[in-house]
Design goal:
Blueprint: H1 10-13, H2 19-29, H3 31-42, H4 59-68, E1 81-84, H5 86-89, H6 95-107, E2 117-119, H7 145-155, E3 159-165, H8 182-192, E4 196-200, H9 209-221, E5 228-231, E6 249-251, H10 260-271, E7 282-284, H11 297-309, E8 314-316, H12 325-331, H13 334-340, E9 349-354, E10 357-363, E11 369-375, E12 381-386, H14 387-390, E13 397-402, E14 407-413, E15 415-420, E16 425-432
Parallel strand pairs: 1-2, 1-8, 2-3, 3-4, 4-5, 5-6, 6-7
Antiparallel strand pairs: 9-10, 10-11, 11-16, 12-15, 13-14, 13-16
Helix pairs in contact: 2-3, 6-7, 8-9, 10-11, 11-12, 11-13
This protein binds 2-acetamido-2-deoxy-beta-D-glucopyranose (NAG) (4 copies).
One 2-acetamido-2-deoxy-beta-D-glucopyranose (NAG) binds at residues 92, 94, 96-97, 141.
């Protein structure tokens, strides 16, 4: 179950003398501090100035409260990994593309690295429901139906995702949304063997999102099938604060675009919700653009590294049937994926900002710390993470593993520095001796 491996339980308890973990713990339950510290980071100060006054005596009751509030479907122990049709294909999809994507996922080795969900986005259905009010797969593009696709994908050991909308039409306005048809549609998805629902926010009639999303959540729980629930509410009503009992992930931002400004701004918007992520429910800064062509290799490396560190869903958004070597290398870095899928499930965050030079970090299982030195500026620069920034004692000796160079520095003390190219990053796991 999601609940037993919550980061607020035993794993954090063993680190209560570390400022880093203490800060993280406090953020979880004192949103006010979160905002205060976010503001100081944004202003160029460092997290070291933050003081957390809470002791650990309230930990047991707060973690119990947290557990009760999680969606109890047993899914999303680690952030979801897979593929989604939207970022590359938009509306131009058909069952051949979905099948070939499933084939490629397995044949090029991405499935073995953990990418399991094959998610169909908008535009899979007919404009109107049938006479009984059921959603209907679009005959011209999905003539075999969704159940046949689910069967196809399942035989390959993968899972099938589908898309609907908490409104009267989907965002493409080419098919119905599920508002007012939640139970019927959840039952339809379950009968087709669907494993995942992305639930969008268009044409929503102004109804409160908490009601609209909760209705579908309940319908899915009652459908008799275990279905991952991905809320796509665009972060409008701060879903991090209420969606953990409703879904397995919730979008914290508007749609990503395939460019540097969009990606970086979304990373920043998502950062302030870090304390709300945990096994069972994750912040979602939207799907990956890696491989779609709008950013440089170093920008995509930064995109993928940050998404892994912040425990974002790793949903590939390019055409993996024609994937190039560089894109494949980025998406298949096992060590970076390992940070995303670490069992502690604590979202890393921005811990230091000095102009365009940033340090992001977060705790991993086994007392390790993941950190990224990120150069968001346009000229080469040296970036230093001090142990103070990472809540390590300055005397601590660590082994530093560079996850992109696949190289080690042993017995590093006090700080770690690297020269970082424009828009590039370095990513490390630090293992204290
Ligand atoms: C599916 O879409 C692709 C890409 O647009 C197209 O090349 C292919 O012909 C389509 N196949 C079917 C069966 O519609
Ligand atoms: C891509 O990788 C394959 C296999 O390693 C190699 O044969 C091919 O030459 C590479 N292509 C390019 C463009 O580097
Ligand atoms: C980075 O640090 C190295 C070693 O201290 C130094 O040689 C180099 O000039 C520095 N580069 C920049 C861009 O500051
Ligand atoms: C480098 O570090 C990794 C992870 O800390 C470790 O598994 C590996 O054995 C190290 N390799 C060498 C050559 O020291």
């Amino acid at each position: 179950m999601a609940l037993s491996s919550s980061p607020s339980s035993s794993s954090l308890k063993s680190h209560t003398d570390s400022v880093f973990f203490r800060i993280q713990y406090c953020y979880m339950f004192i949103p006010l501090l979160l905002f205060a510290s976010f503001a100081t980071v944004a202003a160029g100060a460092q997290l070291r100035n933050v003081r957390c006054l809470t002791d650990s005596s309230s930990e047991d009751s707060t973690s119990r409260r947290t557990r009760r509030s999680l969606l109890d479907n047993g899914l999303a122990l680690t952030p979801q990994m897979g593929w989604n049709s939207w970022n590359h294909f938009n509306c131009d999809i058909n069952e051949t593309i979905i099948k070939e994507t499933a084939d490629a996922m397995v044949s090029i080795g991405l499935a073995a690295l953990g990418y399991r969900y094959i998610n169909i986005d908008d535009c899979w259905g007919e404009l109107n429901r049938d006479a009984k009010g059921n959603l209907v797969p679009r005959a011209s593009t999905f003539p075999s139906g969704i159940k046949a696709l689910a069967d196809y994908v399942h035989i390959k050991g993968l899972k099938l995702g589908i898309y609907s909308d908490a409104g009267i039409q989907t965002c493409s306005a080419t098919m119905p949304g599920s508002l007012g048809h939640e139970e019927q549609d959840a039952n339809t998805f379950a009968s087709w063997g669907v494993d995942y629902l992305k639930y969008d926010n268009c044409a929503n009639t102004g109804t409160n999102p908490k009601e609209r999303y909760r209705k579908m959540s309940t319908a899915l729980l009652n459908s008799g099938r275990s279905i991952f629930f991905s809320l796509c509410e665009w972060g409008q009503e701060d879903p991090a604060t209420w969606a953990s009992s409703i879904g397995n992930s919730w979008r914290t931002t508007g749609d990503i675009k395939d460019n540097w400004d969009s990606m970086t701004s979304i990373a920043d918007q998502n950062d302030k919700w870090a304390s709300y992520a945990r096994p069972g429910g994750w912040n979602d800064p939207d799907m990956l653009e890696v491989g779609n062509g709008g950013m440089t290799t170093e920008e995509y490396r930064s995109h993928f590294s940050i998404w892994a560190l912040v425990k974002a869903p790793l949903l590939i958004g390019c055409d993996i049937c024609s994937i190039d070597n560089v894109t494949f290398q980025l998406l298949s870095n096992k060590e970076v994926i390992g940070v995303s899928q670490d069992k502690l499930g604590a979202q890393g965050k921005k811990v230091k900002k000095d102009g365009d030079l940033e340090v992001w970090a977060g705790p991993l299982s086994g007392n390790r710390v993941a950190t990224i030195l990120w150069n968001r500026g346009s000229s080469r620069a040296n970036i230093t993470a001090y142990w103070y920034d990472l809540a390590l004692k300055s005397s601590t000796l660590v082994d530093a593993r560079d996850l992109w160079a696949h190289s080690n520095q042993s017995s590093v003390q006090d700080h770690l520095s690297a020269q970082v190219e424009p828009h590039a990053c370095k990513m490390y796991i630090l293992t204290p001796h």
